[in-house]
Write a structure and sequence with these properties.
Layout: E1 12-14, E2 17-22, E3 25-30, H1 41-52, E4 60-65, H2 90-94, H3 98-113, E5 121-126, E6 129-131, H4 133-140, E7 143-147, E8 151-153, H5 168-175, H6 177-186, E9 190-191, H7 192-198, E10 203-205, H8 210-223, H9 226-239, H10 244-263
Parallel strand pairs: 3-4, 4-5, 5-7, 6-8, 7-10
Antiparallel strand pairs: 1-2, 2-3, 8-9
């Protein structure tokens, strides 16, 4: 997959993650295609740093992976007794007390949490494999545009683990409890047609058209007034936790803010 940001000087480029910014559009690229963009704690720290490094001008963030796969999941070296040099092994993590283990997993999750910030809209451009942690990283984004060769799978259960990188909440929200349980418990592949039909993906396109489709979507998002998009995103994100009447009230409050802002009238 060609890099649409290769001519821009990176804001960050480390540990398999590159961040570039072109005015209101930022692109986060996973840059280890020889390992199918396998994930490690170092990569997660770099992703979290990318989120902290976004300039205030950024409105849309595109997440993509170089090569034939978006991300094939955890680096397999993490499953070996020696693990990844400089990182805790699974055995070492398991030996930590409850508070330490919880803090370690929470730190890993920071790479996956910032994509749904109210001030940005994030788009995952997903081709090939998006397995386990790769699936959860795609789920961390607001929107997903997929290539017709995409293969989503949640393989943690087959390894005796659970999905713990923030993917369970969006998965259930998108496809419902029963299908989410079936996808996670079986570890089966979800391909492009099902991904679109079930709500996992917004649209599927041929592999060669993925970058263009994402650019078109980003352009459409950037064409709308920023404050209106921010307010609308906040409304929609909070809808599932509100009653119908509470949502009506939230709509009124948000619209009042927009009307006053457009009219230049202070509250």
């Amino acid at each position: 997959m060609a890099s649409p940001d290769q001519d821009l000087a990176p804001v960050l480029d480390k540990d398999g993650v590159r961040l570039t910014v072109d005015d209101a559009l930022a692109t986060v690229t996973l840059t280890n295609p020889t390992k199918r963009n396998a994930q490690s704690p170092a990569l997660w720290r770099a992703l979290a740093e990318a989120g902290r490094s976004l300039p205030g001008s950024v409105r849309v963030v595109v997440l993509r992976g170089e090569g034939q796969s978006f991300s094939a999941g955890l680096d397999r070296q993490m499953f070996t007794p020696e693990g990844i040099p400089g990182e805790p092994t699974f055995i070492e993590l398991a030996r930590r007390d409850d508070a330490e283990l919880d803090a370690s997993i929470a730190e890993f999750q920071e790479a996956f949490t910032w994509w749904r910030r109210s001030d940005i809209v994030s788009i995952a451009a997903v081709q090939g494999h998006a397995i386990g942690a790769g699936f959860q990283l795609a789920l961390a984004c607001d929107l997903r545009v997929v290539a017709d060769d995409v293969q989503f799978a949640m393989r943690e259960t087959s390894l005796g683990l659970v999905p713990d990188l923030t993917g369970t909440h969006p998965l259930v929200s998108l496809v419902g409890y029963a299908r989410a349980l079936e996808i996670c418990a079986t570890g089966r592949y979800v391909q492009a047609e099902e991904a679109v039909a079930s709500g996992l993906a917004n649209v599927a396109v041929p592999v060669g058209e993925l970058d263009a489709a994402v650019r078109d979507l980003a352009g459409a998002l950037l064409a709308a007034p920023r404050d209106a998009v921010v307010e609308t995103k906040a409304l929609l994100r909070g809808a599932s936790g509100r009653t119908y009447d509470e949502q009506r009230a939230a709509e009124r409050q948000a619209q009042a803010r927009r009307l006053r802002d457009l009219a230049g009238v202070g509250e």
